[in-house]
Design brief:
heterodimer, A: alpha/beta, Rossmann fold, 3 domains, B: mainly alpha, two-stranded antiparallel ribbon, 18 helices
């Protein structure tokens, strides 16, 4: 990793940036300076203003006050085009790719290679291939439709797009969130190469050890303003960073395990479950009050197993039973009726009605309870929803605002509230803390455990081994669509799990 | 968040319990009654439409004071609005639910023809004219069922599925009627539907009843709530356990039944059944729904807006007719109104949905 010289040239300077939205002061005087060839980490809880700040940097939002200097000159990033022209490329968390276009077309979207108005498709494909290989992902076919790639694959394409523009500053918004360990390593190697060539990277992540590993300097945001800037990433302690972000000094707190009662009934039974080309022969059972964790690489089939149990995908073989009753394969409706709930991986596109009120998102799976002959009494519905949001400490507290306005952690709580209201027997959680800040994570862990203590059977899928080991009672390790290990969470270490999942992979 | 940084409480993992949730100024502002009324009531959301409607009435009054401000004229406007109005109520549901139905006019035609065939009318003569009414409703529901099944289970996009229905339903209506206008002979039918109740035509009462039923269904029932959910994010609705396929089928059956009701109304108004009934109604209905504030992409819709949209278009043609302006001039004005209404709504939507 490159260590920037003491007086490395300043590339970008933001001074006193203020951005207001109706009713919210999202940025309230943010300072940030980025030097040529450094990895500058941006830390802060959800809602601290990171997303707004990078949107200002990308030209998507115009600041109300403040100045932006680029290589010693004052600039006006009035539009995304203006930002791109300066050499700023942004890789958003919500990937901005066109699903129906191919990988190569996406990489050159907006700056297509052409001569006399005619596309030079083969050159674009060749160059796109070269960029992907540089990223260590030559296996992604440039002619493939982007919609068919996994989230990790899409992330790589997004990054390739930034590289194709010869960016001088690349902003990465939680790039590691959709990547597994091996791919994160790959990403870091690419970042190191980029910085060696003098490209600066603004890196946003919730994983503090990544910041230590790759970062040069750190800026911490809190409540829309800069708390501290230019901290040395290597020498500042994790505890100090967390303290700056939160005022608290805890990282993840996993709740105490209470072993399920010895006679606890088996609620969920999965037997010989298979989905052609993805996984086969998956069998496990979950007792009331038990948390089972699925660990494995992205693409190993973990999410697909959950979705098949839920009926969102139709199993090609095997059975799923709840309380001994076999479910009809491929029917979410019967799975929900039998008492299964899913908190999906893509919270925004699969889990929530973003423009609808919080209470409607909570009651959507149990509204018949508030209806008499089909007529809804929205008062009881609101009261019941408000009770649950209060017990989960969802902020802000009102249930009438659109879910879109909440932070990631609070949106996840709304999804959990939905199944809490439904009194579900089985809860399937796919990446429950993706995009959730440190403080809210502990709350979600505690919430999941308390649900289990109330007798819910829980299945958790997570890319973070630590999370699976900390939260689950029983751990299943999945590799290439197969369960390669099962056992109590206390009897296996993070290192062993990594060994299991990496063995046989391309590394 | 909380400014008093309490030391970590490891024993209480839900760490921030000790600070009671405070209502921020934002919440207070949100809770202000006037703002709530404005944002929540459809009257507030449709303020622009109400103004446009008022303006149109003013123009009518200014250009033809005696003839426009006249109870009979108002009843004429309402009677003309009622048929397309009922179709538009159905269309509001299907568009809010994320679909579209291009076949409404054709279904209306087929229903009217089927209900007035010699066989149906003979049967009605022997029993009761209610046979004609049921026939129209059943034909409408049946066509809607076919549309719904094609869209939900056949995975045909709504535009294409209902385009096919548009062509085939009207074709079938032409075959059934041999392209001849079928006169209604059942006197009881005409007597019932062409009557007035305390000066209000039965057709207008039917429109009002359908509109009220539609409002209740959309805003006060689980069916309506599911319609918003399916139209807003079909994947999230499916994963939340809503039977989205069945719901989609029901939406198309609903709009089909509305077409059946509209067919009965048009039969009463014209005392005929014809394969040319309802030509281009699909476009009028979509226009009324869209200027009424329903999102063409689904997830948001209002019955009040649709009713206002229908009234605006009908009043417009009334005013133009009174001033002896051509149908072509009406069409131009209609187009301009659609564009202005949608532009204004987008402005409004953008302002209210910033993060």
């Amino acid at each position: 990793m490159t260590v920037p010289e003491k007086d490395a040239a300043a590339l970008l300077e933001m001074r006193g940036i203020v951005k207001e939205f109706p009713g919210v002061r999202a940025l309230d005087g943010v300072d940030l300076d980025v030097r040529v060839g450094e990895v500058h980490c941006l830390l802060g809880q959800n809602g601290a203003g990171k997303s707004t700040l990078i949107k200002v940097l990308a030209g998507a939002h115009r600041p109300d006050e403040g100045e932006i200097w680029w290589e010693g000159e004052k600039v006006d990033l009035s539009s995304p085009t203006a930002a791109i022209k300066q050499g700023i490329a942004t890789i958003y968390q919500e990937l901005d790719l066109v699903d129906g276009l191919t990988v190569a077309e996406n990489i050159y979207l907006g700056h297509e290679l052409s001569r006399g108005g005619l596309l030079r498709a083969s050159e674009a494909r060749r160059k796109a291939q070269a960029i992907l290989e540089r990223l260590g992902h030559g296996e992604i076919r440039v002619g493939q439709e982007v919609g068919k790639l996994s989230p990790a694959g899409k992330q790589i394409v997004s990054m390739a797009r930034a590289l194709s523009r010869d960016a001088r500053l690349i902003v990465m918004d939680e790039p590691s969130a959709v990547l597994d360990q091996e791919e994160v390593g790959n990403l870091f190697r690419v970042i190191a190469e980029l910085t060696r060539d003098g490209v600066a990277v603004v890196y946003i992540s919730h994983r503090l050890q990544e910041v230590k590993e790759i970062g040069d300097r750190v800026t911490v945001l809190k409540d829309g303003s800069t708390v501290s800037t230019g901290l040395d990433a290597k020498s500042t302690s994790t505890a100090d960073l967390i303290h700056l972000m939160t005022g608290r000094s805890i990282e993840y707190v996993f709740p105490d395990r209470r072993p399920p009662a010895p006679g606890a009934p088996v609620v969920l039974e999965v037997d010989g479950l298979a989905l052609d080309g993805t996984f086969h022969d998956v069998a496990f059972e979950v007792r009331a009050g038990q948390i089972v964790g699925l660990a494995g690489l992205v693409g190993a089939g973990r999410s697909e197993i959950l979705e098949t149990v839920y009926g969102a995908r139709k199993a090609s073989a095997g059975s799923v039973r709840v309380d001994g009753k076999r479910l009809r394969p491929g029917s979410v409706h019967t799975a929900v009726a039998a008492g299964i709930g899913l908190a999906p991986e893509e919270r925004k596109s699969q889990g929530l009605l973003l423009d609808h009120a919080v209470y409607r998102n909570i009651s959507v799976s149990s509204m018949t309870r508030f209806a008499r002959a089909g007529f809804l009494g929205s008062k009881q519905e609101r009261i019941a929803a408000a009770e649950i949001t209060r017990s989960l400490d969802v902020r802000p507290a009102g249930v009438d605002q659109a879910v879109r306005t909440l932070s990631g952690g609070n949106q996840q709580k709304v999804v959990l509230a939905r199944w809490l209201m439904r009194h579900c027997r089985v809860l399937l959680l796919d990446e429950p803390t993706r995009g959730v800040d440190v403080g809210a994570r502990s709350e979600i862990y505690a919430l999941v455990r308390s649900l289990a203590d109330q007798g819910v059977a829980v299945v958790v899928v997570s890319s973070e081994v630590e999370e699976v080991l900390g939260l689950a009672d029983q751990v299943l390790v999945v590799r290439e669509g197969e369960i390669v290990h099962r056992g109590p969470a206390q009897e296996i270490t993070e290192h062993q799990v990594l060994d299991l999942v990496m063995a046989g992979s391309a590394a | 968040m909380n400014s008093n940084s309490t030391p970590a409480q490891v024993s209480d993992p839900v760490g921030s319990k000790e600070t009671p949730p405070q209502t921020s100024p934002e919440d207070n502002r949100r809770d202000h009654w006037a703002l709530r009324l404005l944002t929540a009531s459809s009257a507030g959301r449709n303020l622009g439409l109400v103004l446009a409607f008022g303006l149109l009435c003013l123009v009518g009054y200014a250009t033809a004071p005696e003839r426009f401000i006249d109870v009979d004229n108002f009843m004429t406007i309402l009677r003309l609005a009622s048929v397309i109005g009922v179709v538009s109520i159905g269309m509001t549901f299907v568009i809010t639910g994320g679909g579209i139905d291009l076949s409404v006019g054709a279904i209306l035609a087929l229903s009217s023809v089927w209900a007035t065939t010699l066989a149906t009318q003979t049967l009605a003569d022997d029993t009761h004219w209610i046979v004609m009414v049921s026939t129209a409703l059943l034909v409408g529901a049946g066509c809607g069922l076919v549309n719904g099944l094609l869209v939900a289970y056949g995975k045909v996009v709504p535009f294409i599925a209902t385009l096919a229905m548009l062509a085939s339903a009207r074709g079938l209506a032409e075959i059934l009627s041999d392209r001849r206008t079928q006169i209604i002979t059942a006197q009881g039918f005409a007597d019932f539907f062409r009557a007035d109740v305390v000066g209000v035509p039965v057709l207008v009462i039917m429109f009002a009843l359908v509109a009220i039923a539609g409002w209740v269904l959309l805003n006060r029932t689980t069916f309506g709530r599911r319609t918003f959910a399916v139209g807003g994010n079909i994947e999230a609705a499916r994963l939340a356990g809503i039977n989205v396929h069945r719901h989609t089928v029901m939406l198309y059956v609903l709009v089909g039944v509305c077409c059946g009701i509209a067919a009965i109304m048009l039969m009463a108004r014209t005392t005929t059944g014809s394969s040319t009934h309802g030509t281009l109604y699909e476009l009028d209905a979509i226009a009324a729904v869209v200027i009424g504030g329903t999102l063409l992409s689904g997830g948001r819709g209002t019955i009040g807006g649709t009713v206002l949209g229908v009234l605006i278009f009908t009043t417009l043609s009334n005013v133009f007719t009174m001033n002896n302006l051509s149908i072509s001039a009406q069409a131009v004005a209609k187009g301009v109104i659609i564009v202005i209404a949608v532009l204004l709504q987008q402005r409004f939507a953008n302002r209210s949905s910033s993060p």
